C-alpha cells in the first residue's frame, strides 16, 4: 500500500496525459462535508469569508455527485475541503459509509484539526471504512495555539488527547472488531529557528507515538494575502500550494487545476484548493454533472492559460505564486 506522502506526490505531480486543457477525470477529489470550523487560524483561507457559513452539504447532493465521480474514474475521495468535517460527525460517517460501501471508492481520506474528533466519532469513521485520517498539528504550545488558531488553549489540549485516543481506538477497539485499516498520519507547518525546535519537541512527545507517518508543509499563501500574514504571524508564506516539503512543485501549471477536484458544501466545483470565496468556481454541480463542470468552457480556458504559463487576465492572476 502506498504511503500518504506517495499518494500526495501522485496528486501534485501532473502526469503527461493531464497536461491539457481538457484532462481526464481527476485522480482525487476533496468535498466540503462541512464548511464550518471551530478554529480561526490566521493563515487559513476561511478567514477571507465575509460571512462564515452555518450549513453543511446536502447528503442527497453528495450521493449524486460522488456516484458521477466514481463512474468517471475518480479513485480517491477526501471528506473535507476547507472546513472541519467533524463539525457534523453524523453526516461525515454517513458520507464515508456511502463512498466505501455503496460506491466502492478505493481510498477515502480525511484531514482534521483533531479538536472535535472525539473517540465515538473516530470509532464510527473507522468502522465505516475510512482509509486515512490525518491530523493538522501547527502549534507548539498553548500560547502559540491561541495566537495563531485564535481560540482557547483548551482546544490545544483536547486535540492532543484525541490524537492519542484515535491510536488507541485503532489498536484496541479495532482489534476487538476484527481490525481497523485506517492509517493515522499528521502534518505540520515548518517554522524557523527556535519555533521549529519547539514543534519537533511537541511532535516527539505527543504526536509521533500515535501516528504511522508525519510530514512537513510550507506555509501556504492561501489566496494571495501573504504580506498581511507575514506581518501578523512573523514568517513568510510560500507561493500558492506547491505541495509538501521534499516534493515541492512549480507554481505553473498549478496541479490543483489539473489533478484534484475541489467541491464546496454548496456544490460548486472550484479550480483552487484555497477557494473560500467562490472566486474560482468552474461549475455548479447542482445544475450540471461533475465531468461537465470539470471540463467546462471556463475551466478549459483557465487550464489553457496555465499551460502557457501566463495567467494574466484570469482569476489566478493575483496569486502570490505568479507575483
The SSE order reads: HEHEHEHEHHEHEHEEEHH
Major beta-sheet overview: 9 strands, mixed
- What fraction of the residues are assigned to beta strands by DSSP? 5-15%
Count the DSSP helices: 10
Percent range of helical residues: 25-40%
Number of strands: 9
Low-pLDDT windows of residues: 221-238
Radius of gyration: 19 Å
Cα end-to-end separation? 39 Å
Structural shape: globular
What structural category do the secondary elements indicate? alpha/beta
Mean pLDDT: 89
Descriptive account of the structure:
The chain is α/β, with parallel strands linked by helices. Helix content is 36%, strand content 13%. It contains ten helices and nine strands. A nine-stranded mixed β-sheet has the order 6-5-4-3-2-1-7-8-9, sandwiched between helices. Helix 3 (89-102) links the parallel strand 2 (76-78) and strand 3. It is globular and about 50 Å long. Mean pLDDT is 89; it is low at 221-238.
Amino acid at each position: 500500500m502506498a504511503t500518504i506522502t506517495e499518494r500526495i506526490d501522485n496528486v501534485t505531480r501532473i502526469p503527461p496525459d493531464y497536461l491539457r486543457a481538457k484532462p481526464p477525470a481527476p485522480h482525487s477529489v476533496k468535498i466540503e462535508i462541512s464548511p464550518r470550523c471551530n478554529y480561526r487560524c490566521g493563515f487559513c483561507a476561511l478567514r477571507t469569508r465575509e460571512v462564515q457559513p452555518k450549513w453543511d452539504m446536502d447528503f442527497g447532493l453528495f450521493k449524486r455527485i460522488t456516484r458521477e465521480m466514481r463512474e468517471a474514474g475518480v479513485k480517491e475521495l477526501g471528506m473535507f475541503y476547507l472546513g472541519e468535517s467533524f463539525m457534523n460527525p453524523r453526516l461525515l460517517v454517513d458520507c464515508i459509509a456511502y463512498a466505501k460501501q455503496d460506491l466502492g471508492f478505493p481510498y477515502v481520506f480525511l484531514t482534521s484539526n483533531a479538536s472535535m474528533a472525539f473517540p465515538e466519532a473516530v470509532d464510527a469513521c473507522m468502522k465505516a471504512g475510512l482509509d486515512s485520517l490525518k491530523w493538522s498539528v501547527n502549534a507548539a504550545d498553548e500560547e502559540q495555539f491561541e495566537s495563531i488558531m485564535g481560540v482557547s488553549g483548551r482546544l490545544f489540549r483536547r486535540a492532543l488527547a484525541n490524537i492519542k485516543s484515535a491510536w488507541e481506538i485503532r489498536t484496541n477497539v479495532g482489534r476487538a472488531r476484527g481490525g481497523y485499516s485506517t492509517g493515522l498520519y499528521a502534518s505540520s507547518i515548518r517554522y524557523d529557528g527556535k519555533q521549529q525546535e519547539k514543534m519537533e519537541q511537541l511532535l516527539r512527545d505527543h504526536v509521533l507515538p500515535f501516528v504511522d507517518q508525519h510530514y512537513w508543509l510550507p506555509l501556504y499563501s492561501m489566496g494571495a494575502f501573504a504580506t498581511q500574514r507575514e506581518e501578523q504571524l512573523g514568517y513568510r508564506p510560500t507561493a500558492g500550494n506547491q505541495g509538501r516539503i521534499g516534493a515541492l512543485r512549480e507554481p505553473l501549471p498549478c496541479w490543483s487545476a489539473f489533478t484534484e477536484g475541489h467541491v464546496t458544501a454548496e456544490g460548486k466545483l472550484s479550480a483552487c484548493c484555497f477557494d473560500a470565496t467562490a472566486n474560482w468556481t468552474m461549475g455548479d454541480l447542482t445544475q450540471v454533472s461533475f465531468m461537465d463542470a470539470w471540463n467546462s468552457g471556463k475551466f478549459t480556458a483557465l487550464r489553457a492559460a496555465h499551460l502557457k504559463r501566463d495567467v494574466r487576465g484570469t482569476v489566478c492572476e493575483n496569486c502570490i505564486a505568479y507575483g
